[in-house]
Design brief:
The complex is a heterodimer of chains A (431) and B (358).
Chain A (H helix, E strand, L loop, with lengths): L7 H10 L70 H26 L13 H10 L5 E3 L5 H6 L4 H9 L32 H14 L6 E6 L6 H12 L4 E7 L2 E2 L2 E2 L13 H5 L2 E6 L3 H16 L5 E6 L20 H4 L5 H12 L4 H24 L24 H16 L3
Parallel strand pairs in A: 1-2, 2-3, 3-7, 6-7
Antiparallel strand pairs in A: 4-5
Helix pairs in contact in A: 2-3, 2-11, 2-12, 3-9, 5-12, 6-7
Chain B lengths: L6 H4 L5 E2 L4 E3 L2 H15 L3 E5 L15 H5 L4 E3 L4 H14 L2 E5 L10 H8 L2 H4 L9 E6 L14 H5 L5 E3 L4 H13 L4 E6 L25 E3 L11 E4 L4 E5 L2 H13 L3 E5 L2 E3 L3 H11 L2 E8 L4 H13 L8 E5 L9 H4 L3 H13 L1
Parallel strand pairs in B: 3-4, 3-5, 6-8, 7-8, 11-12, 11-14, 14-15
Antiparallel strand pairs in B: 1-2, 2-9, 7-13, 10-12
Helix pairs in contact in B: 2-8, 4-5, 10-11
Chain lengths: 431, 358
Amino acid sequence: MSDRIDSDAARAGAGRNLPPLRLHVPEPKFRPGDTADFSDFDIPLAGAQARPDETTQPGEMRDLAYGLVRVLDEDGAAVGPWDPKLPPETLLRMLRAMALTRAFDARMFRAQRQGKTSFYMKSTGEEAVSIGAAAALASDDMCFPSYRQQGILIARGWPIIDMMNQIYSNKGDRLKGRQLPIMYSARDAAFFSISGNLTTQYPQAVGWAMASAARGDTRIAATWCGEGSTAEGDFHSACTFASVYRAPVIMNVVNNQWAISSFSGFAGAEATTFAARAIGYGIAGLRVDGNDALAVYAATRWAADRARANAGPTLIEHFTYRVEGHSTSDDPSAYRSADEASHWPLGDPIARLKKHCIALGIWDEDRHAAMDRELAEMVRDAAREAEKNGILGHGLHHPMESMFEDVFEEMPWHLREQQQKMLDEWKAAGL
Amino acid sequence: MEGSRPVSDMMSEAVTEARGDTVQMNMIQAINSALDVMMERDPDVVVMGEDVGYFGGVFRATAGLQQKYGKNRVFDTPITECGIIGVAVGMGAYGLRPVPEIQFADYIYPALDQLVSEAARLRYRSAGEFISPMTVRSPFGGGIFGGQTHSQSPEGIFTHVSGVKTVIPSTPYDAKGLLIASIEDNDPTIFFEPKRIYNGPFDGHYDTPARSWAGHAQAQVPTGYYRIPLGEARVARSGEALTVLCYGTMVHVVENVVAEMGVDAEILDLRTLVPLDIGAIERSVRKTGRCMIVHEATRTSGFGAELSALVQERCFYHLEAPIERVTGFDTPYPHSLEWAYFPGPVRIREAINKILKD
């Protein structure tokens, strides 16, 4: 008698009677040439989501991980319990920072096309995600951004000429020309060094928040990644740590639908929402209209207050759309429908906040047009100044020997030797 | 309150009093003492890792620390090495000085991205705005029948990475002094602890009874603060006939083989691989004219390859014989054939005979 516990009979039957197994490979709805049609896209009404108390247990607010927190309605009115009721000057500051971010992106994109630098990444359509959050955080709350949150630096008033110097990798670059354009580091703006490796910043933000809590500090941490890189192990390690130690951290997933050419289905969007990742970890999860600056502000403020009350971390999914290519090295017309962006049902974040301000009577079209002109000039002037420090590949870089600095605090013999050899070789070559 | 007692007193193994303020310690006790001293001196030092808190670590290296310094400074972590090192990077950015433990060096691979792309690069990519002053402690090496997932020597992976230091002690005295220097260092440091010699030196003969550190000169360890600078090798034995470059467990194996053979070898315990004490290596090889390299790690692209290249580049006209390498084989660490894999007395003896004849 055999000790095998699988059934030979069932096995034999399986071969004959069961359907063959199938592999599911996700496919986006629209490809190049298709007309994007979002008419079956169910947009929850603005103001319809309940707003629980900041200390609510994650298990009692699970529906918020599947809904969509929205404040601005179709007429530009702020409605419902999530309306942060911001004073006019805050609304206008946010609007200006969003417009400046867009103007900055436009100028730097053009600079790359003109050959002044190697690379650029726009955040068009996602300005509210950065600026709404920056407005809701304290200026010394530590940000661990991904590569498309330049709006945080702009909202925190970091000099745009320093951002440009970094993009041009010139002699004015605070990072000594070592980093790919847009991978800023700005300690004085509580903005962590950006990595090109995805989602590594997630556990780092949790660690920073744990340190702040262990020290009895009051500052919290916030971090951002794209929906595509929620698949990284770092994301899940970070969620586990954040949950285990109830770290005062806000974890933002910017769901802009596309990770280069891979639509969100390749990160699991066909099966569930990204905010719902929070549920398995016992973390509060919010899903937010990422093109609604007031909803982003309100959700961030809710999460920040929750963290400061020692009530634990929050995972926020910002549902938005990447209007432009992934980067200057990408051509989205090769993989997605050309009119997706213009048909995007949640609109444009700047247009929506502008409409709100006009509806409130604190803003008008003329002032907006004047502001856009002023910002374009400001960005142009800053770019001209930055270009005096050099553009990439035109010699005005940091000294050659600086390549060997900051590998270690003190330069060990092998790096000193390599540095000297390089200088000797260039000298011998008459350069 | 337990707080005022030295942590080493709380450990299960008895600590023998020695002269003055030194006591006899095994390597685990010396490491524990280093952590204790640094946690006492610097409130920024935090210890974290799997099982390191209440339990005190699977090898007991962190025993008593949580009791003494509290859970905010000594805590257990989830089982995710990526998370442990990522969190340590964030804590370092905050201003703390984390000492994460990776339970076995074989488990360090999930943390490689955080170590290689983050910790090691942070100072450089932020032009010094942010640093990662962590010291990653991890038991490494074979000789305990750990099979292929509890025996590896991955130091060569880290010496190949710019921005990280690699330190490997071979005695209790060095373990404490080097660990203190590593923790004080403002760069990320990989501190590999040769677990085969945690409890006693190993002469390479696996079939003879294990020895303890009792009576070993290098097991007399000061109870207080001292440091051994990173980047300084130790002459474990001075001699004229040949130079042997080694570190960790292999220092003791080589010492024993040399003694058994009656060869007048100079044995250099490198102690730090990056930064390397190239001056000590050059002085010794120029004196003896013969250079042998012994490590337990796999051979191809192992640290011995780098040592061999450096000696060739710098001491070629002093060499009287080809450089010899005795290393682990380019196979996984086999469980039942551990002692055929381990570069033990048989292979070291052969190599010494060859290099002296050449």
